[in-house]
TrEMBL record:
Protein name, as recorded: WW domain-containing protein
WW domain: residues covered: 8-41
Superkingdom of source: Eukaryota
InterPro entries (alphabetical): WW_dom (IPR001202), WW_dom_sf (IPR036020)
Amino acid sequence: MGDDIDWLDLPGRWTYGVCGDGRIFFINDDTESTSWVHPGTGYAIQSGHFSCAGFGSSIPHSCFPWKTR
């Protein structure tokens, strides 16, 4: 993702969250789904973490302390 793109410019009813380890994820408030990929650009936000093979696409429960398991 280029430096000139504002990652806070989210479409529709999307919001964002930050996991305890600093990774940024996106929340679709209409469908109550989450994604590591920015809904407008199609790219994950570079937050100092790296991706590797086998990394799951789901957001860990530790990112949602307000939800019950």
